[in-house]
């Protein structure tokens, strides 16, 4: 007689606790997602910043990305832009082992000229190192403008978050750039 | 039968829990209670851990976002952090909310190659301002929960972030150079490590977040900025060289054909000094490449100056169309137009200085060393260059080529200086008349441009050769200062503290301009100083041409190498043309004898 009562009581409490556990786990999942997304977004920013700086540290005519360049390159030599990028990100990995264990990156950099504007296009994709799932895909457009009033990297730039986009990445420039 | 069944049911209904059942139930209940309590406690613990972890992550994210935002609002902010120094023991009393001290030294901005700022245990401090608005100081940056970053959802933010416990957190901030990004100093690594201090022992799981930023020019070290400027100027000249090559290759241009044409032209002259020009003679073989090299430099000079003249004419027409309006669009167009003109002046200057030097070398003959008759041919390359440069200019038939080159070259410093002053005046006028209508972003952008134009107009300005009315650097500084004061009041009245901070930094820059420019704008000063040397070089060029011309016409004698007497080139060439090489030797010998006799007399 007591057993059914105990079992009913146990079942009720178990359901409650299980719900709590589910909620806590979901909360944990959300926290983890927040952390993964934040770290991935900042890593994408870091790659974009590095490449923008390298783009600005050389004259336009001597840019290394006249043709589309992908990264990382397995054959990147020391001292080359790709080698420097890899070494720079390796420093990030060293300083935050979580990044090294969980995030991987790839992307490309290219350039074009539209309406006399010199444009640098950088795509960065951050993936889960373990599963290979994409975490974010960011595309950055920088208008390369240098004159006596030297404003490095402070020109018109446009950022497009293509993470949620199911379409294949477009090669066309966004319309906003023609309005700059 | 039915009675027996009802009795059994009655007996069963009255039957209580057996002791075994009781014990079993109690044990089971105790186990369940233990299990449930344990689950509850661990879930709660997990929830706390999640909350702490999330709070750490949020704080790190907020700090990085705020840092980037602050650097954007005030590009001097990084330099300001540097000014704090590596104080490892920041606490609530020493932690600076506003690190931009008045004493910020703009000459030493992040000026060490091994630059690193490490600030540890920066506390989070809650406050309530005069309007009873609550907020937090994240050590060196201020944070308000109702900040736009969280779209005003203070309650949601508080739920998420466990605001009541925020003061139990602190963070370490580390800013260093990315040594892989060249030039070193252009990219900074920002690393934030957040710790929870509510435990009895040090936080075993601090949260780390790192990213990179491009160091704004305002906070960049002189050495890094110099590197960047070198590349900027490298690009400037390569564009002009490309245009020159395109110009020269158009229409099947040939340098050797040009030299041959000038040779024919000289041979057809009535002057004997020109008639002797003959690059085809075997003994004159080295003169052909020498002549071609000299004419290549003359053509570079010619093409660069004509390109400049065309570009300036176009830009002047554009400027005339823009008019004298003070609206944003017109001002931006004028600024762009002025920068382009000043840039053209600088890039053409950069392109023509070396050719002028080379032409000067080509105009100086090796000299005539008697008794060798071939030595007189040492004058043929300078004479050919002189002949070409003193002929009528294609663009202006009333002037010679050299006078047109000189006129355009002399206008370069004037164009540079006036353009910068024009841009300064227009942007200054826009800021003074429309500062209430402009957005904070525009105000920051245009006041920075104003300071840049002031710097560019004032660097070494006292030496620039400028005709017409020109304001002194101190007049421009006064105007810039007045505008900054106006902006300062405007920002203060509107409680826009980041704006006040930015204007204060810009004021400091203005005050420290002389020492600031000497350290930070070395590359630019080197270029601008070339304006000062240009005048001297042009005068030298004119003087050399006059000298060669006088020699060619026989109006001036030629000094001989290792001999103290002079000879007349015109007579010498006459002798060669009428009587041949042997006669030249005899003529030189006669000159020597006459000189020795004059000494005896």
Q: What is the topological layout?
A:
The complex is a heterodimer of chains A (180) and B (601).
Chain A: H1 2-56, E1 69-71, H2 81-95, H3 97-102, E2 103-114, E3 117-128, E4 134-144, E5 157-161
Antiparallel strand pairs in A: 1-2, 2-3, 3-4, 4-5
Chain B: H1 2-14, H2 19-73, H3 77-84, E1 116-128, E2 134-138, E3 141-143, H4 154-161, E4 169-177, E5 187-196, E6 207-214, H5 222-249, H6 255-267, H7 272-275, H8 287-322, H9 328-363, H10 380-389, H11 401-434, H12 440-458, H13 473-493, H14 497-511, H15 513-520, H16 522-552, E7 558-559, E8 566-567, H17 569-579, H18 581-600
Helix pairs in contact in B: 5-8, 5-9, 6-8, 8-9, 8-10, 8-11, 9-11, 9-16, 10-16, 11-12, 11-13, 11-16, 12-13, 12-14, 13-14, 17-18
Summarize this, please?
Chain A is of the alpha+beta class. Chain A has helices spanning 2-56, 81-95, 97-102; strands at 69-71, 103-114, 117-128, 134-144, 157-161. Chains A and B meet through helix 1 and helix 2 of A and helix 2, strand 5, strand 6, helix 5 and helix 9 of B.
Task: Describe the protein's architecture and organization.
The complex is a heterodimer of chains A (180) and B (601). Chain A has 180 residues and is α+β, with helices and mostly antiparallel strands. Chain A has one domain. Helices cover 42% and strands 24% of the residues of chain A. Chain B is α+β, with helices and mostly antiparallel strands. Chain B has two domains: 176 residues, no CATH class; 279 residues, no CATH class. A six-stranded antiparallel beta sheet of chain B has the order 3-2-1-4-5-6, with helices on one face. A two-stranded antiparallel sheet of chain B has the order 7-8. In chain B, helix 8 packs parallel to helix 10 and helix 9 packs antiparallel against helix 11. Chain B is elongated and about 155 Å long. The relative contact order of chain B is 0.08. At the A-B interface, helix 1 and helix 2 of A face helix 2, strand 5, strand 6, helix 5 and helix 9 of B.
């Amino acid at each position: 007689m007591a057993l059914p009562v105990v079992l009913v009581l146990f079942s009720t409490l178990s359901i409650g606790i299980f719900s709590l556990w589910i909620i806590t786990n979901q909360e944990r999942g959300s926290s983890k997602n927040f952390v993964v997304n934040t770290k991935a977004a900042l890593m994408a920013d870091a790659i974009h910043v590095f490449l923008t700086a390298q783009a600005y540290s050389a004259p336009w005519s001597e840019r290394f990305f006249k043709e589309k360049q992908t990264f990382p390159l397995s054959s990147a030599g020391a001292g080359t832009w790709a080698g420097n990028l890899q070494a720079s990100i390796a420093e990030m990995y060293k300083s935050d082992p979580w990044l090294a264990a969980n995030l991987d990156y790839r992307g490309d950099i290219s350039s074009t000229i539209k309406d006399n504007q010199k444009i640098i296009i950088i795509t960065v994709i951050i993936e889960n190192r373990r599963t290979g799932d994409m975490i974010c895909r960011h595309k950055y457009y920088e208008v390369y403008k240098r004159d006596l009033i030297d404003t490095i990297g402070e020109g018109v730039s446009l950022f497009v978050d293509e993470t949620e986009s199911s379409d294949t990445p477009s090669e066309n420039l966004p319309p906003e750039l023609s309005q700059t | 039968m039915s009675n027996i069944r009802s009795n059994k049911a009655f007996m069963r209904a009255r039957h209580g829990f057996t002791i075994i059942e009781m014990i079993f139930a109690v044990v089971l209940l105790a186990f369940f209670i233990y299990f449930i309590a344990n689950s509850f406690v661990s879930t709660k613990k997990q929830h706390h851990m999640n909350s702490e972890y999330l709070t750490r992550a949020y704080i790190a994210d907020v700090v990085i976002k705020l840092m980037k935002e602050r650097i954007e609002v005030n590009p001097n902010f990084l330099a300001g952090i540097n000014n704090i120094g590596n104080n490892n023991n920041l606490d609530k009393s020493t932690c600076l909310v506003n690190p931009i001290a008045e004493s910020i030294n703009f000459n030493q901005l992040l000026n060490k190659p091994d630059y690193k700022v490490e600030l540890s245990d920066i506390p989070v401090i809650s406050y309530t301002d005069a309007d009873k608005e609550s907020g937090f100081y994240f050590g060196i940056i201020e944070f308000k929960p109702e900040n736009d970053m969280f779209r005003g959802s203070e309650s949601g933010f508080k739920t998420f972030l466990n605001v009541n416990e925020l003061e139990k957190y602190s963070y370490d901030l580390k800013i260093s150079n990315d040594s892989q990004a060249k030039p070193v100093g252009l990219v900074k690594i920002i690393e934030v490590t957040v710790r929870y201090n509510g435990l009895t022992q040090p936080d075993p799981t601090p949260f780390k977040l790192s990213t990179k930023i491009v160091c704004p020019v305002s906070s960049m070290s002189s050495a890094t900025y110099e590197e960047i400027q070198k590349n900027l100027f490298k690009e400037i000249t390569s564009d002009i060289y490309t245009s020159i090559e395109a110009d020269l290759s158009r229409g099947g241009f040939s340098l050797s054909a040009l030299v041959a044409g000038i040779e024919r032209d000289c041979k057809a002259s009535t002057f004997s000094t020109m008639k002797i020009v003959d690059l085809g003679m075997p003994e004159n073989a080295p003169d052909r490449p020498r002549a071609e090299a000299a004419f290549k430099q003359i053509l570079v000079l010619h093409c660069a100056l004509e390109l400049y003249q065309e570009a300036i004419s176009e830009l002047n027409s554009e400027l005339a169309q823009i008019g004298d309006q003070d609206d944003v669009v017109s001002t931006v167009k004028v600024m762009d137009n002025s920068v382009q003109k000043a840039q053209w002046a600088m890039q053409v200057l950069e392109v023509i200085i070396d050719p002028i030097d080379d032409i000067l070398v080509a105009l100086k003959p090796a000299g005539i060393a008697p008794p060798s008759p071939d030595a007189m041919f040492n004058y043929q390359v300078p004479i050919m260059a002189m002949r070409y440069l003193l002929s009528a200019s294609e663009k202006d038939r009333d002037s010679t080529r050299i006078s047109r080159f000189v006129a355009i070259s002399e206008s370069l410093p004037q164009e540079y200086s006036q353009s910068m002053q024009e841009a300064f005046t227009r942007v200054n006028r826009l800021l003074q008349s429309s500062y209430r209508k402009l957005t904070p972003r525009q105000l920051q952008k245009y006041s920075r441009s104003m300071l840049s134009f002031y710097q560019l107009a004032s660097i070494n300005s006292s030496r620039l050769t400028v005709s017409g009315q020109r304001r002194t650097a101190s007049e421009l500084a006064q105007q810039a200062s007045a505008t900054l004061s106006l902006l300062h009041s405007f920002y203060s009245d509107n409680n826009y503290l980041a704006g006040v901070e930015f204007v204060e930094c810009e004021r400091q820059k203005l005050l420290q301009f002389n020492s600031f420019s000497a350290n930070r704008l070395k590359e630019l000063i080197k270029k601008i100083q070339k304006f000062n040397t240009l005048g001297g070089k042009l005068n030298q060029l004119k003087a050399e041409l006059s000298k060669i011309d006088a020699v060619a016409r026989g109006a001036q004698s030629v000094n001989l190498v290792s001999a103290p007497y002079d000879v007349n080139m015109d007579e010498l060439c006459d002798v060669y043309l009428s009587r041949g090489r042997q006669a030249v030797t005899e003529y030189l010998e006669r000159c020597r004898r006459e000189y020795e006799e004059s000494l005896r007399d």
